[in-house]
Task: inverse folding
């Protein structure tokens, strides 16, 4: 089973992959759990099994780069250009979580210190919700489990 810190860090990587490669603008809703997690993206393309394998490969490639995960707090006024959906209303400062040079996203959650601690990313299933969003369900396997 994964920890929530691991799942949280994985969500950042997955969201960056969905933005860069599948045109998602952001993660609209998520539920992170130790066994499995789910995230919803605004991806209009119908995904094939091949796309799903590609998402897994892209996420795992970043995990394997052993990116350090660091955070810093900056004033909200300097946060232009960041994806602010998780920032509570009324906040004046935000915490930016950086995954190496791969991603920087505001988040107040807890994360691992290095992506080397994440294990292998695996998509369990995917479906289209009634509101049109793409829901991905995923888990982390121990690194040895291939
Ligand atoms: Zn986070």
Result:
């Amino acid at each position: 089973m994964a920890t929530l810190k691991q799942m949280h860090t994985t969500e950042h990587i997955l969201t960056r992959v969905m933005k860069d490669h599948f045109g998602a603008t952001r993660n609209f809703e998520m539920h992170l759990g130790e066994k499995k997690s789910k995230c919803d993206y605004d991806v209009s393309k119908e995904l094939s099994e091949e796309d799903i394998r590609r998402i897994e490969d892209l996420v795992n490639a970043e995990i394997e780069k052993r990116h350090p995960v660091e955070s810093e707090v900056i004033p909200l006024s300097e946060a232009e250009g960041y994806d602010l959906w998780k920032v509570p209303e009324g906040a004046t400062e935000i915490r930016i979580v950086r995954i190496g040079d791969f991603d920087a996203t505001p988040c107040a959650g807890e994360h691992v210190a290095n992506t080397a601690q994440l294990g292998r990313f695996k998509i369990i299933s995917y479906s289209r919700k009634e509101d049109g969003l793409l829901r991905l369900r995923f888990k982390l396997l121990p690194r040895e489990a291939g």
Remarks:
- Strands lie at 27-31, 37-41, 69-75, 93-99, 103-106, 120-128, 134-141.
